[in-house]
Design brief:
- With about 270 residues, this protein is mainly beta.
- The chain is about 15% helix and about 35% strand.
- The chain has 3 helices and 15 strands.
- Strands 1, 3, 4, 7, 10 and 12 form a 6-stranded antiparallel β-sheet that branches. Strands 2, 5, 6, 8, 9 and 11 form a 6-stranded antiparallel β-sheet that branches.
- About 30% of the residues are buried.
Length: about 270
C-alpha cells in the first residue's frame, strides 16, 4: 500500500474512533445548563442557554424577580459566595412579613426539557439561599421534583432544603441552612430508569415573606448509584502555616459523615 493511501486510512480510522468517543461522551451527559446566555443585565425569562426549558408562574405582577429570571449581578456582592460564570438563575420574594405584592404562600417552577433516563443518571446543581429560609416567619424552600407524564400535581419531591435527610443524601451536611454559603447537591435519579421525565426546580414560599434563591450549573449524567451510605470527610488537609516547634495550634473540626443513599449524618468529629 502506498504511503499516502496508508495515511488516509489511518486518518479515517482515527476520525471514526473520535466520532465514537464523542458520541459516547455526549451520551453520558443528557442535560447541562449554566445559564450563560451572553446577556449582561438581569432580565426575565427566557432563562436558559439550552432549549426546552419552561416556567410555570404563580406570581403575575410586574416584578420580574418574583418569577424565575436570569441573574447577572455577582451574588458575592450580597451573599458572600459566588456561583460560576457570569450568570445564574434566580427567584426572589419580598422580605416584608406584612402582605405586599408578591407575598406568599406561592411557588414558582423552572421546568427542564424532557429527559430520557435510559440508564442510571444523577442530577447535580449548585445553589445559594438566604439564612431567612430557616426563620419561622419567613420560611421558604428550594425543591426539586421529578415529573412523569407531564403531571406536575403528582410530581415526586426528591430534594428540599427543609428536609435534613434529603440534604444529607445530596451531600450537604449542614442543617438548617443558616448562612449565604454556596452548596452543590447530587440527586440519584436511578429510580426512574427507563422513563422519560422532566425536572422541576421549585421556589416555594410557605408564608408571606421570603428571600432569594440562586441556581446554577445543572447537569444530569450517567453514574453508578451507591448501594449504601458513602463516607465523606469534610476536609482532607489543613495548612497550619509557620509555627514554632512545640507550639499548640489546632485545626478546624474535621467531620466524617455518611452521605449518599440512606446517609445517616455525622459519624464522629476530629478536633
Amino acid at each position: 500500500m502506498k504511503r499516502n493511501q496508508l495515511m488516509k486510512k489511518n486518518y479515517l480510522s482515527l476520525a471514526v474512533l473520535f466520532s465514537l468517543s464523542l458520541a459516547t461522551t455526549q451520551a453520558q451527559t443528557i442535560l447541562e445548563e449554566d445559564f450563560e446566555t451572553g446577556a449582561t443585565a438581569s432580565q426575565a425569562t427566557p432563562l436558559t442557554r439550552g432549549e426546552g426549558w419552561t416556567t410555570v408562574n404563580s406570581y403575575s405582577g410586574s416584578n420580574y424577580r418574583y418569577n424565575w429570571f436570569n441573574e447577572y449581578r455577582d451574588p458575592n456582592s450580597q451573599a458572600g459566595a459566588t456561583i460560576s460564570g457570569a450568570g445564574c438563575a434566580g427567584c426572589d420574594g419580598p422580605i416584608n412579613v406584612n402582605p405586599v405584592d408578591g407575598s406568599g404562600p406561592r411557588e414558582e417552577i423552572l421546568l427542564s426539557p424532557e429527559l430520557d433516563l435510559n440508564d442510571t443518571y444523577q442530577l447535580q446543581f449548585s445553589w445559594i439561599v438566604s439564612p431567612m429560609n430557616a426563620q419561622d416567619n419567613s420560611r421558604y424552600d428550594l425543591q426539586v421534583r421529578v415529573v412523569t407524564d407531564g403531571n406536575l400535581a403528582a410530581a415526586e419531591t426528591v430534594f428540599s432544603i427543609q428536609n435534613e435527610q434529603m440534604l444529607r443524601e445530596s451531600g450537604v451536611t449542614v442543617f438548617p441552612i443558616d448562612t449565604w454559603d454556596l452548596h452543590t447537591s447530587n440527586v440519584d435519579l436511578s429510580d426512574w430508569k427507563g422513563e422519560k421525565v422532566k425536572l422541576a426546580f421549585v421556589y416555594k414560599m410557605f408564608t408571606t415573606s421570603s428571600n432569594v434563591v440562586w441556581l446554577d450549573d445543572i447537569s444530569v449524567k450517567k453514574f453508578t448509584p451507591p448501594t449504601g451510605p458513602v463516607a465523606q470527610l469534610s476536609s482532607d488537609r489543613y495548612n497550619f502555616g509557620d509555627v514554632y516547634v512545640g507550639e499548640k495550634l489546632y485545626s478546624e473540626v474535621f467531620t466524617l459523615s455518611n452521605v449518599g443513599k440512606n446517609g445517616t449524618g455525622p459519624v464522629f468529629s476530629l478536633d
